[in-house]
Amino acid sequence: MTDFDITSKEIDGMGPHGTKVGLLRVLGPAHVWALGVGIVLVGEYMGWNFAVGKGGAYAALIACWFAGILYTCVAMIDSEVTSTVAAAGGQYTQAKHIIGPLMAFNVGLYLVFAYTMLEAANAITAGYLISEVAALTGYAGELDQRPFIVLAILFLAWLNYRGVLATLTFNLVITAIAFAAIVILFLSTTGVIGTSLMHHAELMSGPAALPYGWIGVLAAMHFGLWYYLGIEGTTQAAEEVRSPARALPFGTLAGIMTLLIAATLTWYVCVGLIPWEYLGDGVNGSVAPLFDAARLTGSQPLLWLLGVGTLFATLASANGCINDASRAWFALGRDKYLPGWFGAVHPKFRTPYRSIVFLVPIALAFALKAPLDQVVTFSILSGLLEYTFMPLNMIQFRKKWPMGSIKRGYEHPFHPLPSIVLLSLCAITFFAVFLGYGTQLVAMIVFYIVASLWFHFWRYRFVSRAAQFTMPWPRPKGY
Amino acid sequence: MSQFILLLLALGLGLWSIQTLRTVLVAAPARKASRAGYFAQSAGLLSDLRRQIQPTGFARMAGRYRGLAFDLQAVPDTLTFRKLPALWVMVTVTEPQALTSETHIMARATGQEMFSTYGQMPFEVTLPPDFPPHCTMRSSDPAALPVPAVMHALATLFTDPRVKEAVLSPKGLRLVVLAEEAERNNYLIFRDAELGRQPLPSPRLQTLLESLADLHFTQCPIGTAA
Asked: Which of A320, A295, A252 is closest to A42 using CA atoms?
């Protein structure tokens, strides 16, 4: 344990990696970059192109930017609550303190299923990639993707089961490949290096630009979230002691900017090379659009670079999803929102092993049986429900503990405008999901209603009510 | 040209694979050794030393300091959600105390701390005002709290943000402090948590031993039956 001056006004954080306070040092170049990769950059490698199928090329780009506004509101709102609730645990802990156990139970489920479905989507993409590589290297016939899907999920689940003792100490260089691959593809195909291969004029002319009109732009909002889904979790790796500088939303906003740039580059390259009808079909057409774009260039190095980048992004993302989903499920078990059996800790590996094992068949079932667009939709819907909860949470937070009643590490400006904007964009996105995926929307809503009824009428009797609120705050206003 | 670049890529990937495998094979025994020797620098502070390796691979040590029986444990905590994994050091005076109830004081409590029974304590009690605002207290019997002198000493201890929990029970006294947290970038990308590669510095542990010993003698003045 390194000794350092904990009263220093120049050093923040607590661990041996404390960094200097100040905007540039809060971000840090590697930190900014790291925020964009891992769980979230995978959204550039697969899934976003379903937005093209719903509304055309321009619709996907507009959806990307509006989703950026949505996530900016998420970052601002979340930073205020996170900086004030000293107990770590993200939106789950926030819901326990501000709204109550039923909301916290739902938020816990949103997190589990958003990440479990994302894990399934990653496995599907990895399986597809391996089958394509087999075809490119001369394999006759069609390679069965299912064993590779199963292998990917089981291998990563085993890694997480082993936990700290199986740390592989990956070199950060390999994650640079995922981001650099997009940049290299952009430079190679747009004429910056070599001849331009873009055909935007031909591929986006006439009805190809907005094939379904402005209703298509609205519908594309559905998959616009996929570019950024999970970033609120990726940047919420809180330290035990959070300094006010760390409470600022700049880290998350920097990550959103990184993703916006990556998403725009991705969109530009793909729509300039791939016809929108093929690009927009992520099930039977372009499952991994960047990989397909590289294939169309005819360049073997680019093809392998993007193939490796896609594989790394999907596996890194799936690893994080298994980690986060299992810990959310574990937290629900510890709080008795779910049977306490799930709250067990492995005696040697110190991992939530029962939660990890329990979620594996759920991920496998969706990865093996459901098409990619539906798996992505289930993940988006769970995330969307969480983003809908956040403005309601914020409004309640300001109402119950007004400004000045408790110390806030960060106070986001223009309240309630970000909450209203976020709520409006969430409502638009729900309608966008309904356009074409109404069955999935209804199924998801019914599932959460049934789960809530089960919690209310059965499970709540096991919950230790006094244990839910751990913050030394005054009584809420009006109580 | 394209074949050449392809060859370079394949070579790069191959070299990286070999380097990663080598790192894994070399890192595993080094990690095992560093965790087993986590308290090695502090072994000279205790007499009647006994050592054990926990199932996690981290060391556990027991011995005497200023005539009191102490127990030291290092507990990795990777069970947190939306929080960096941490390595906690638990320093315990395993001597009977003049107490009839169990009291926990926790900083930034979530109620899910794996190393503590804080979440199971039945009563929450208001702390004296000299404690930092993020601290909370729970007890098995609010009518039998520690004496004011002990509470005042604990309030001073908790000004160090690395102090996580203090436990006062008839069986002994315990302090839980944060020793390390996972490297942020590696955790964000890979959920990687490399903890315990550097041993606990002896001066830091000695400070904790002194604090606990002073607390014990405040709680049980010499000559007082526990």
From this structure: A320
